[in-house]
Amino acid sequence: MSTDPTADIMHDRKAWLDRAKTLSEALPFMRQFSDETLVIKFGGHAMESDDLARLFARDVVLLKQVGINPVVVHGGGPQIDAMLKRLDITTPRVDGLRFTDEATVEVVEMILAGKINKQIVSAINEAGGFAVGLSGKDGHLIRARKLRRTVKDPESNIERVLDLGFVGEPAEITPHVLDVFRASDVIPVVAPVGMGPAGETYNINADTAAGAIAAATNSRRLLMLTDVAGVLDKSGNLIPEMTAAQVKAYIADGTISGGMIPKVETCLDAVEKGVDAAVILDGRVPHAILLELFTPHGVGTLIKAG
Ligand SMILES: Nc1ncnc2c1ncn2[C@@H]1O[C@H](COP(=O)(O)OP(=O)(O)O)[C@@H](O)[C@H]1O
Ligand SMILES: CC(=O)N[C@@H](CCC(=O)OP(=O)(O)O)C(=O)O
């Protein structure tokens, strides 16, 4: 506070004017996405800070408030890791996917569809929204099947099918329940667990689930919030944009590895199936979603078809 009240008033006035200008500048972006579905994947790493989870929830409520239709699909890998450790269950990962036996799938469902899903629903509701949590089992949203993944032995060059237990992939998405919410003020929050043909539970990578839902709902954008600035090159610099060919080359030469592999593969698949663009962005940055959607400055790595 200065000792000059007139100077204080002028300073406040300028600050408010700047704020009004920012809002006004966001209008064309808001109009661009008005009535459109946006699938937002909220990764387990990105939600580790309570403050960031609160800001995320606020941003999602804002999207709904301005006439956009956000669908949240969440992960929870680190939170599943923590619970498995407490229970003394060890599960290896292959290319970012967790080997999931019968005991593990039970824990996965409890953490994803129970603990994490309700945490996000509560955060959105506390921010003034009207969130409803569901898993892929609800309303047949995700009918799953066992994931078939082949790997090539680098020495013999022989391909073999990898058995990851109860790791599934979406076989069919029935977006009916999301269509019902679309016409209302409800914000759906989806846990990536699906049901197989015999009623078995499948653990689905959250990126894969988000991509499949984005494609099935004709989502304009797929936003993947994670714990890195985006896809980084070998020197650690952000790659602002990638084509399909570049993605494949980066996986082949090891630039992209681990959990980033299902992420970029999902983005490619989604844009090939009609999603306009997929963006991998830093969920640790406050208001990452608003920056990405409502300003001319994209903040992560954009993946487009072609
Ligand atoms: N080229 C790359 N650029 C950025 N991150 C990468 C890259 N290759 C591998 N990664 C790893 O992928 C991780 C993101 O995937 P993951 O841990 O599954 O995130 P989330 O929990 O958000 O789904 C990063 O934290 C990083 O360790
Ligand atoms: C098959 C598989 O790996 N499923 C994941 C599901 C959660 C997830 O994907 O969480 P993040 O988005 O936080 O990584 C898992 O068990 O960790």
TrEMBL record:
Gene Ontology molecular function terms on file: acetylglutamate kinase activity; ATP binding
Keywords attached to this entry: Amino-acid biosynthesis, Arginine biosynthesis, ATP-binding, Cytoplasm, Kinase, Nucleotide-binding, Transferase
Site (described: Transition state stabilizer): 41, 263
Main location: cytoplasm
Location within or outside the cell: Cytoplasm
InterPro entries registered for this protein in UniProt: AceGlu_kinase-like_sf (IPR036393), AcgluKinase_fam (IPR004662), ArgB (IPR037528), Asp/Glu/Uridylate_kinase (IPR001048), NAGK-C (IPR041727)
Positions contributing to substrate binding: 76-77, 98, 203
GO biological process: L-arginine biosynthetic process via ornithine
Pathway entry: Amino-acid biosynthesis; L-arginine biosynthesis; N(2)-acetyl-L-ornithine from L-glutamate: step 2/4
Pfam families reported in the protein's UniProt record: AA_kinase
SUPFAM superfamilies: Carbamate kinase-like
Protein family (similarity comment): Belongs to the acetylglutamate kinase family. ArgB subfamily.
HAMAP family: ArgB
Protein task: Catalyzes the ATP-dependent phosphorylation of N-acetyl-L-glutamate.
NCBIfam families listed in its UniProt record: argB (TIGR00761)
Protein name from the UniProt record: Acetylglutamate kinase
Source species: Paramagnetospirillum caucaseum
